[in-house]
Write a structure and sequence with these properties.
By secondary structure, the protein is of the alpha+beta class. It has helices at residues 2-11, 15-29, 34-42, 74-77, 84-90, 114-121, 129-138, and strands at 54-62, 67-69, 79-82, 94-96, 101-108, 112-113, 154-159, 165-173, 178-185, 191-192, 197-201.
């Protein structure tokens, strides 16, 4: 008897919320019968799932150079600040035979660590720094474009020479008029903000 009574006591304060949730589910099922809605859920015929973490905004075609050296494109892209990790890992980073690609540009719908973002992106998560820098160069003065210039992060996932995946963030600094770039290991429990933007491979 103790367990059922305890469960009832814990549920009672939330009855209003549970009723609102059931009405929401019934509307999605297009039924006005609450018993049928509950039966479908309990039978596994209708599954409640979390909304997607990323919302597609657009796609963007980018070209791939035969050789891309990060240090040779900092001025052209107007990078005025680099974080310690980016400076250490990617300053002299070289990408060769980079393919042309179509990038998917997606908005982060809620705060999230890298692990959840990578899970949703799957095998299309990793992209190339050459592609990010190409877009930064097009918006080197903070012009409107594919990349956000409103203080939110533009995130790409890049693999270094040792096979470690880094979350590279590019932010436009309107006060100083240049790009800031940082790199965080995806093993670090950093949480990105809702509204940040993620670029991944679409093709």
């Amino acid at each position: 008897m103790d367990k059922p009574e305890l469960l009832i006591m814990n549920v009672l304060p939330a009855l209003g919320q549970l009723n609102a949730m059931l009405k929401n589910i019934m509307a999605q099922m297009s039924t006005d019968d609450p018993n049928e809605a509950i039966r479908c859920i309990n039978a596994g015929e209708w599954v409640v799932k979390m909304a997607n973490l990323l919302k597609r905004v657009t796609t963007m075609s980018v070209s791939g150079p035969k050789k891309f050296v990060v240090s040779e494109h900092l001025k052209e892209a107007n990078v005025g600040w680099m974080g310690d990790n980016f400076n250490r890992v990617f300053l002299n980073f070289v990408e060769e035979n980079v393919p042309d690609a179509t990038l998917a540009v997606s908005r982060l719908e809620r705060n999230s660590p890298d692990a959840s973002i990578l899970t949703e992106l799957g095998d299309k998560a990793k992209t190339k720094l050459a592609h990010l820098f190409q877009l930064m160069e097009k918006q080197s003065k903070g012009e409107e474009g594919v990349l956000l210039v409103n203080g939110y992060a533009n995130i790409v996932y890049v693999e270094d020479d040792n096979g470690t995946v880094w979350a590279v963030g590019a932010y436009w600094n309107p006060d100083h008029g240049y790009w800031l770039v940082s790199a965080l290991s995806v093993e670090v429990p950093y949480v990105w903000d809702a509204g940040d933007q993620v670029l991944s491979r679409d093709s």
